[in-house]
Amino acid sequence: MSEQTTAGQATTEQATAARRPPRPLRHVHRDPAAAPFIVIWEATRACPLACRHCRAEARPDRDPAELTTAEAAGLMRQITAFGRPAPLFVITGGDPFERPDLYELIAEARALGLSPAVSPSATPALTPRSLARVREAGASVISLSLDGASAAPHDAFRGFGGVFDRTLDAWRAARDAGLKVQVNTTVNRTNLTDLPGIARLVHEYGALLWSVFFLIPTGRGRALTSLTARETEDVLNFLYDVGRTVPVKATEAHHFRRVALQRHVLAERGADHERALGLGPLYRDLRERALDTGLIGAERTRRPPIDVNAGRGLVFVSHTGEVSPSGFLPLTAGNVREQPLTDIYRTSPLFTALRDTGRLTGRCGACEFRAVCGGSRSRAFAVTGDVLAEEPWCAYEPGSFPYPRELAGLL
Ligand code: SF4
């Protein structure tokens, strides 16, 4: 084959690829039964803040039973035993800055070939100098929480005044230090109408990702009022709309992947998604607010949601080394002090059950989307006590999507 023909074909293929709409979902490259896509380590539960939704019910003092520096390095070596490509490694809390060995831990992770990300709280410890040290030690990403588009709602949610301004300062300082920033927002009844404003801030300041977290009634989050399943559908569809302008991830709302597939097929069919999906007044209100701020309509490439769920690509290690399928699912499959993380992840009955979507019950068990969605196992457990029960915040009736043939090639 001549070089000219090859180049010509490549040009044709590139042109075809450019015309072809991007795939609506992203799948992990490795078998999720063999290795997680992401390992989240709760380095400490100590934190000076008192956020209303805190999963860890964080407290001011460190637990003497926390993994030591040497044990934490051992955990990192266990993560490298999953092989290449290494899982993403997130150091969270509590507030990781409560550990005096934080920079040492980041450097150790980097030396072992991991790419550590740090998830700090917006405390006075978050200074331009400390963020620069995080970068120098080898982290490339930090996450910051933003639960309101202005100071009043954000500070009320976080339990202290001044946290909103400190978060924006840290955002700028992190960027200046060369760190990428992920912004985390917890959706709750008090900030629903603020979501377009928060998206606007994410767009203006620039972020690697806007991770929108749907509450799990666990920890201090038990005291917050839940959304209904229908409201959740409205918010997920709004997020899909702004996904053209800001890179969005829905956390603990795995049915965002179902929404992405539905919207993709409906768009291909030229169908009215609002009517086809029965979206409600909350969706229309959020969409109008987003249109007012110019957030909808951009032509940026959408970031497809990735197919990861508790125990299926995701593993959480607590401050004392307990291993769970998610930080919001208080079931333990073992402890890294006693058993390698690779064994626990690959062979424990809890993790293997969660990877078998054929064991799901209720609507999730009957759902054509279950292999790519599966619902939030953490919320099912928190609400019903059964980790395999149906997702309580999903309104979908299995089998009701009218274009099954179009879906089949995408699942
Ligand atoms: S019923 Fe379950 S599997 Fe189906 S879309 Fe809803 S949450 Fe996902």
From TrEMBL:
PANTHER family: RADICAL SAM DOMAIN PROTEIN (PTHR11228), TUNGSTEN-CONTAINING ALDEHYDE FERREDOXIN OXIDOREDUCTASE COFACTOR MODIFYING PROTEIN (PTHR11228:SF34). It holds the Pfam family Radical_SAM. Residues 1-19 have a biased composition (Low complexity). The keyword Lipid metabolism does not apply. Its cofactor is [4Fe-4S] cluster. This is TIGR04053 family radical SAM/SPASM domain-containing protein. InterPro entries: 4Fe4S-binding_SPASM_dom, Aldolase_TIM, PqqE-like, Radical_SAM_PqqE_MftC-like, rSAM, rSAM_sf. Residues 1-28 are annotated as: Disordered. Residues 33-257 form the Radical SAM core domain. Keywords: 4Fe-4S, Iron, Iron-sulfur, Metal-binding, S-adenosyl-L-methionine. CDD domains: Radical_SAM, SPASM_MftC-like. The keyword Cell inner membrane does not apply.
